Amino acid sequence: MDGTYGDSTRSVKAVGSESIPGQPVAPVPIPASTFHLSPDEAEGLDSYGRSSNPSWRQLEAALAELEGAATALTFGSGMAAITSVLRVLAKPGTTLVVPADGYYQVRRYAAEYLAAQGVTVIEAGTAEICEAAQGADVVLAETPANPGLDVVDLHRLAMTCRGRRATLVVDNTTATPLGQQPLSLGADIVVASATKSLAGHSDLVAGYVAGSQLELMAAVESDRLLSGPILGAFEAWLVLRSLGSAGLRFERQCQNAHALAVMLRGHPAVVSVRYPGLPEDPAHEVASAQMKRFGGLVAVELADADAVHGLVERSELLIASTSFGGIHTSVDRRARWGDPVPAGFARISAGIEDTDDLLFDVEQALT
Ligand SMILES: *Cc1c(COP(=O)(O)O)cnc(C)c1O
After folding, report:
1. Residue 209 backbone dihedrals phi, psi, to 5 degrees
2. What was the pLDDT predicted at 146?
């Protein structure tokens, strides 16, 4: 539709640009209400707030546009979106591949709930996921993976999945649709947390599913209706309000992440750095082929846990926070959550501060 526009233009237009004199510019007011039914008993779109409402539909249209999808569905969190799709696809007797190096609560859900329902769950690292997909019915890939930032070759994985009629689900949280469009690379369906860069203000939790296979999307919508993990109308309004600046914020986050990665790789206090945008990064070639931007996350390893604590203490700009994608640059030492990473491993989420200020602050805080 707006394929020729840049990301900031698309973000602004996605929020709604229909011009109706006397009506708000954007977003629409929040009808957080139960709806009157029509007297002829014809089912209206808005019979009840758990099935659909105008706040969701405006947000869903914007998300579908950004992902290049036919339709999108909002959820109360990224996990609600992911688990709804997995409930639809990973039936008893099927084999599901989940990322060994991705978001840890997805692995927990698969191991604690789906495996108990008779789903065979295989955990595969990014490097082995194509091989694991050979024996799968459903593959969930996350790229760049949170927190290690390895990158999955989505086109290759999609071909493998297609070859054995497995369904490919891609978690697009870290890259956002402004960084990559998994559906255009062959994914069957996209899941994501909007809590992070997309909403981007560290003030809400939300998720979504996007896709163009209408039967699959209808099954996910039905699961949402029946299990009820819905987004509140107020949060939908807030996400939509935030989407208009997503292009601008993400551009600065990517610029800051890249500058931080370059500074960090030459710093004596740093053991190692991962950022898909660095030419020497093992993921760079694949990332360059499939991503429009390399994202706002940088993975860095310092000597130990104390080195990470010291970095945050000495810095005036970094905040310790486990979410990411907000306007502040934040740091999370992932070993505290049980991620399989060294004690001194930190995921840095670049905010939207001035690049020079951030570089100066982090460099002096490391020393
Ligand atoms: C945060 C995150 C999720 C979960 O999203 P919530 O909105 O917190 O439920 C899923 N996948 C990835 C990659 C994430 O970073």
Report:
1. -125, 140
2. 92
